[in-house]
Give the backbone structure.
Amino acid sequence: MARRAIPKDDSGIPDKPYFKIGEAARLCGVKPYVLRYWETEFKSLRPQKTRSQQRLYRRRDVELLLKIRHLLYDKRYTIEGARTRLRDQGHDEGPVPVPPPVVAPTGVSAETVRKIKQGLADLIRICAE
């Protein structure tokens, strides 16, 4: 059975509301892991996720991905330079906030941590049965 062609607009992006990560990567000419990395570097790039955590890129996300690709690959900008350029173009850019490091509460003994780890291992074993 032949696949039905999806109409494209002047930008070459198919006329549909959402794109899976593989489709978005193909349109941008990069691998999916590159898009996942760009999400960590560009604050305005936040695709929606399904209940199963599958990324769904909207049309405007794909347009932004194409801009990022152009800046990084064609114009040879650094990540920081591309961020600045996008900010100048009105995108909400800035450094991606780094979460604070996880610090163990003070006063927790190594023995307590060992018991917690053992309890978690037991739970995993029970769930796997």
